[in-house]
Write a structure and sequence with these properties.
2 domains, about 290 residues, alpha/beta, Amino acid ABC transporter substrate-binding protein, Solute-binding_3/MltF_N, D-Maltodextrin-Binding Protein, domain 2, 3-stranded antiparallel sheet, palmitate, 6-stranded mixed sheet, globular, disordered N terminus, lipoprotein
Length: about 290
Amino acid sequence: MKTLKLFSLLFGLSIFGLLVGCGSHSTSENASDSNGDVRKIKVAYDQASKPISWLDNAGNPTGYDVEAMKLVDKLLPEYEFEFVGTTSDDLLVGVSQGKYQVGVKNAFWTEERTEKFIYPKEFLGLSSIGLVLKQKNAQINSLEEFASAGMTLAPIAANNAQYTVIDEYNQKNPDNPVKLKAGDTFSVDVIQWVNEARVDGGVIIEGPFEKQVLAKDGPYHNLVNEVVYNEFNVIKTWPLFNMKEQKFADAYDEAIQKLRDEKKLNDLMIEFYNRDLFEVLDQVER
């Protein structure tokens, strides 16, 4: 009888120890899973917008916007970024519908877009915007001069923020407006339009103009002596977040501010745009 009782006691203690051990192991695993969860984020980018964002010869996403977001990713261990190349139109639709959590496309701020996207507190970069003109019109250095000369502008899609930039100028200058026409597609080949004399000028970002015209391997390098780029403004650019991603946008704000403080964005700007636009940040109004 004593032997039976002793056996029962030892067996009970063994089962208790086993249950405690399993319970402790399970709690530890759950804590590890809880603390170690990494949320995957789909970052959409315009894959045909060199040097802002594009696929390099090895098939890897790169460009100022993409590389800046890669640096943000390194500072956010709770997130893992997956970069998805797409078109500008699909990026806007995809982010608004939640297909992508955030998108980068050298995006400007517009009132209309605030109804569809979260704009973070901190901007991503800066962009030089200007006019592409025939060499004979190189003396035109502003929208005011362009409008006063009665020149025609290449059409811009109404949902393109460049349209908003020109429209804002027209609203401030009703007596000297630029002839603004909404296009059927998000963007047109303004360099070709100007070269073919279909219009007198077109709005373009400096980076793409340099890569297409000034670069020796650019598709329009043969026009390097025929067309010019004249800057008329420098504008802040932003990532566009899905409306449900406020927490993620807040995390981005902290990371991008740290990168700006460390001057890492200045280095990227020089690498991809050949100039540090942050040097004129105090003059940027938009």
